[in-house]
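Quick start: load a record and inspect it. Here is tyrosine--tRNA ligase:
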Amino acid sequence: MGLSGKAAKAAYLTWRRPSVVAPSTISRTNVATPITPHPGALPCHYPNVPFRAPYTTAVTTTSTISSSSNTVDLIDELDKRGLIQTITSRSLRSHLASSSRTVYSGVDPSAPSLHVGNLLPLFTLVHFARCGHKPIVLVGGATGSIGDPSGRSTERNALDKITLDANVQGIKTQLKAFFENVQEYYHHHRHQYPRSQDVSFPLPPQQQTEFESLSEPAKRDGEVELGMGVKLMNNYTWTAGVTLLDFLGSVGRHARLTHMLARDSVASRLNLSTSLSSSSSSFSSSSSSSSSSSTKGGGGMSYTEFSYQLLQAFDFSYLHRTHCCTIQIGGSDQLGNITAGIDLIRRTSGLTISEPAFGLTLPLLTTSKGEKFGKSAGNAVWLDQSKTSDLEFYQFFLKTNDNDVQRYLNALTLLSGQEVEEVMKQHTEGGKEKKERRIAQTVLADHITSLIRGKKNVEKCKALTDILFSHTTTTTCTATVQGEQMVKNALERLDLSSITKEDNIVTELKKDQVMGQDITKLVVNAGLVKSRAEAKRLLASGGLYINNKQVSKDGGVGLMLVNETDLVQVKGQGESGRGRGAVCLLRAGKGAVKVIHVT
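Running the structure step on this input writes:
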């Protein structure tokens, strides 16, 4: 039941902001006394709002753990993996331990694809699901039209609805593939993860009945099952029908400008050193140029961006009311928006418990040098295959610095802490020579590429890596039997059907375009060099190779190309043999490489 009259006024006057604590201050002995929930807190009954129970879908690939001694302490697990920046209350640990909770993280559809910087909250949701909690991924079909100002010095370009809807659909596809791959991974590795099984918290019988009876109406919010029990929702579903007057009356009246102006996303965009009066006097003179100046970062921020934190708070409040969602996670730049949601829930929920909601922020994904990854940083590695090819994605992680690889293995893989330690032990034992084999980086690249792009593409990337970079295993790219055989073995493993145009590595040529042709003409047709004159210079300097075998100049007129023994037969995949054919590797200089598919 909600509060009213004097009780509501008293609750309003005694309201306090949530405290923010670092993970290091949270320990098993430093936990606030568990709060006994108000009878109406779970399920969350609100006046004039239909009750909707939390999700009941459990992870079907794992079994229930009934013994508390076998369960994972989620806060400890996340902290060890480097996935906690701040927590809004020490009580979060006891909150998670007392029952199965619903947690959500938002995704901004300002681009047609997610990037590797978005993976930290997704992996965090996976760990919540493993421990029996119920994650929601919330895509901003409504808020994406505004754009989150957090971490930005300029205003985002507005997206039209067609573009925004296309972005939402693309992100939905990527999320579904990720969580399905995660679920498949746990299905095949259950015996290796005895501590990572689903912890199903028992619910009172009367609540189980309510959950089952309300499972169908819950789908009216456009929920999509992603895998691992994770749900996808779109905030456009409940935001589109809210009028401005309704929003101001139900959300705006509870917001305090003091708090809104103090949030980092706002304060960093405003010149707070000037007085409010001088800001007011300059408003009229600058209004005509506000649009252009804001784009340059010198005009503060628009009211649209300023109100973004209220829209995100509205999302948290809505999910809390309708799905009993009590936890929001996000990047460290989202702390202000998260606490805005907690403030709104505390003011409007009518619950008597002091902490009806919690927030958990994650560190931003950076290199050891402090470099960020993402759209704003201009170095995004996209999850979308059309924006970052499979090979580029794989190579990005394969090239990870030694100073970063252990941190990435903990945060961006599903390997246990013990497995990560074993990988790092193999990586470091044997000194510099062993490290050059990049054992840890290979495990990282294999694992994360499998989860994002699928197992099939991992095999493709490994084969292409061996093909394209096998010459680097020797000091020079000489005509050695070892180098030639190495690349032939790698070519035999290649599945041509898995190669996409984004990989930009295979060129198809007719047999009569290859056999008997001057090599200087062939390298031009393959797109390795721009002219035959350039090809002739490379030939003269010993810079042309077939299957890592150096091509020697023949009488000053070039060389007739490979014979049949230089072509490698690729069998293809499945009974149909799709992807079969004859191939060879053509290299011009150090970096220009093509796989020639003879058709």
